[in-house]
Amino acid sequence: MHNPIYTALAITGPTASGKTALSLAVAKHFSAHILSCDSMQIYRKMNIGTAKATAEEQAEVPHHLIDIVDVGEPFSSSRYLEEALMVAEELSRKGIPLLFVGGTGLYLDTLRAYTLPEVPKSDPGHIEDIRARFCDENGELSLDALHDYLESIDSESAGKIHKNNVRRVLRAIEIYECADLAKSELDRRSRETQGPFSIVEITLDAHNRQTLYDRIDMRVDKMLEEGLLDEVRAMRDEGLFDGDSTARQAIGYKEMLSYLEGESTLEEATELLKRSSRRYAKRQLTWFRAHKEAYVLYIDDENGMLRDIDDIVHEAILYFENQICKRTQ
Fold first, then answer.
1. Which residue(s) pair with 99 in the sheet?
2. 188, 214, 241: which is the final residue of a domain?
């Protein structure tokens, strides 16, 4: 059993919910450094598609745990914890507050405890989406292609599950895509112990789901305007999508790659990216709503109208200040 060592703030929530803008304002108020809690922003060269903070934003507030590995390099939640601990030790020694920001709930759960959270529940819609990706034009499922994909993301599970056991193969893939971690590693880490972080968390949410979906659509359009297609093309030319790389399966990259490889029109790829992002946001909301200790901060009012960013910032700072005061009494 490990006692908490580092008290940290955290801002979580689904994609396009406004985490970056809020985190910059909160970090400036508390003179904190931002530690990314995102499973894709760790990769170098994946910038626009992962919505990384811009160079200007990173100049305003120091960021950590961004651009720390090359595309294709293995990375796990335990590795993330190790990296976070090193940064936390250095910042704490200097008296600099920590602010974790991101949408990968698994990473935040790993910070809290040296264990993984409960295995995510199965979603029939997600299972059907996975199945559809490995069907030919006649709707026939390719067992070999499906199992090869499992082998690429979780070789240990693939070695234990026969390709004909489609239900288990699909479930193992679903777990990986929901938890950003292999089922085999989730299975290994079954005993809960207290982690080194005591975290005060705010989760962004929306009363009206369509409010969030509209923001996601606008986010995708903005990414394309900023050069997402050129970013994907450059990565392809470098061979970073060869084989079954992480980048090839990442939202924003697989859709644009399908266009570049002549499998879809740009309009079709864009609509697919928006749909994939909305579905991912739905899974993120499900994950974060299980964080009962988190303070839910809504980005819209009960009528679905977006709130002013200054009001959201004020509410967040007030909550964090109250919680910090309670923990230091």
1. 9, 34
2. 188
